[in-house]
Amino acid sequence: MEIGDEIDDEIIQSLPSGVALSWGIIKPSRRGPKGELSIKKIVDAAIAIADSDGLAAVSMSRVAQSLGYTTMSLYRYITSKEDLLVLMQDAVCDIPIPSEVPGKPWREEMGEYVWACVDVFRKHAWYGDMHITSVPLGPNNLQVIDWMLRIMRDFPLNDFEKMSFLLLVSSYSRACGLIARDMDKAIRDGASPEAFSGVNYGAALKQLVKPDRFPHLHPILMAGAYTDEVENPIGNDLDFGLERILDGIECYLKMKGEGQG
């Protein structure tokens, strides 16, 4: 990003430094020799470390070592580990956004949005360990938000309603992403898919879960639904949950449409 006359430097300085770096707002005086390193190279190296060994393994010294430079060389580009984490978080949000297709059902588009977000958690397990400290501020993250708002462009909603639905759907994406991430890790570590359904523990739970203490869980457990010991008529639980969220949005849209009629 080039800083033009329309950019107010004082206002821009209110942004966290890592966010400013993500937008390409850079102080030239902090640069090293041209071509020596780049912010992208540093961020990519940090992401590779986090993907391999977890977020806790990321340090400025570890990243510098992986690139063959001194730690001080990195500080010419990125002034702190906190800024590096901000840049990493935004970098992995640079995901392919599908082109707009006229007439495509909005429910299908929202489904694509959800599973694309889930995929970020699956590809980068550390992403879910990042703390949420504010609304998204980085350009890649905002691009994803813009995609969701595009889907709702013609909804009969005000801006705050759209943002609330964005939060609702994104929160479900995050929840599903964390579940999928943890399942992936457990399977890589040798667990079986059956361990997640609890089918291997059904018999033991039926001895431990008594109706006097668990009056509502007990009949579901005994029927085999809690541990997937019987056929599931609703299919994948995460897909089912998403469809019910979309049902709620659709119902609200219908109500808003009737109210405006």
UniProtKB/TrEMBL annotation:
InterPro entries: Homeodomain-like_sf, HTH-type_TetR-like_transc_reg, HTH_TetR, Repressor_TetR_C, Tet_transcr_reg_TetR-rel_C_sf. Residues 59-78 bind DNA. Keywords: DNA-binding, Transcription, Transcription regulation. Pfam families: TetR_C_1 (PF02909), TetR_N (PF00440). Residues 36-96 form the HTH tetR-type domain. This is HTH tetR-type domain-containing protein. It comes from Paenibacillus allorhizoplanae.
